[in-house]
Design brief:
The chain is α/β, with parallel strands linked by helices. It is built from 18 helices and 13 strands.
Length: 474
Amino acid sequence: MTVEEKIGQLTLFTSDWDVTGPTMRDNYKSDIISGRVGSIFNAHTADYTCELQKMAVEETRLGIPLLFGYDVIHGYKTIFPISLGEAASWDLEAIEKSARIAAEEASSAGLHWTFAPMVDIARDPRWGRISEGAGEDVYLSNLISEARVHGFQGSDLQAGNTIAACAKHYAAYGAAQAGRDYHTVDISERVLREIYLPPFKVAKEAGVRTFMTSFNELDGVPATGNKKLLTDILRTEWGFDGFVVTDYTSINEMVDHGNVADLKEAGELALRAGVDMDMQGAVFYDHLAQSLKEGKVTIAQIDQGVRRVLKIKEELGLFDDPYRYCNPSRQQETLLSQEHQDFARDISRKSIVLLKNEGKALPLNTSSKIALIGPLADSQYDMLGSWHAAGNANDCVTVLTGLKAQSSVDIGYAKGCEINGEDRSGFEEALQLAKSSDVVVLAIGEAGNMSGEAACRTDIGLPGVQLELAKALV
């Protein structure tokens, strides 16, 4: 392999099918043909991944197959409750099955790799990405970390319906000060090892094949350039033998952290620290060959990363058959199957948390006249939640649609107000409906995009005038 081809295996670029970060690269297809990129994310469906795979296998000098990754967090096409909701079920078998179905669907759509599970411990509810993990408890997070890795990867990565998992964000990303995404982390060694590292170690012991670095710094050193995390603990102490990928342009962001002078130095620090793959930043792509010429990195360090990446491609069976995941017929049979939809409904039931049931209000009496009120009562898109992969809002069943499907139910509906904003003009209609009904079902809360990456909130109360609406109805 030439140096450029080796660096290509350490490079991950996004396609133009989805946007999950701040930068795009229009010429990713020419990069594939020139052998300068070895993995692609945000490209999915059996047909499209096959098209790109043919470029890599049939039009490049070495014919090394591409690795396709995507954020399959709580389902691919069939969408399950957000990860925090699944954790609220305490049902490890169901959580593992959720990841298993997600892997079956994702693999049928040409994907080999998911950027999940997120195993960050999160104890500040203002942090938007708390929605992607298992919450604040280390013990529960450990169990769910193991369950999700087993669900995604199964017992055989060459089975064809399994995908490689990725433990993220390594490490202590959930400890961001004030719950502000990307903010600094200041914790002791004891807190790091007793609270934030255990779910990652459990993921490693469960066989997870990849790790993703976090955006935050730890002891003044960004995780993407932190040798203590990426080599001393992960490789030497724990014996991890998969590969480490950065988060989206996190090598580039080390310049903003101020611990390196420029992108070239950032890439050198990342490689020496233990990073094997640069996600979207093109730092390795643009600068690593020059760093090698200058002796800032060694060919042995580059070769080590290449071997790790190629090893995972081999474990997935891509060298035996690069097109083994390119099966449109299987995709059609698998996606959104009735079995998967039935399970989605079952795990949704298990994820619901009933706080009180005063006066035996539940279950609802089907002979009662029901007033369904609130901005989330009939909002298909907000049913999806954050990071909903290939989920389509048109496939979602809202509360209103679900209640109407019960033919015996007499139901009236009023939106009342928007999720956000100050408009109270719908209050009167909602109040009149409530007065003429036996029971009120109130569907209020956050919009689907109010949680997730870069979606932190200083106030976790109900947005807009929803609380006023609720008080008016009491």
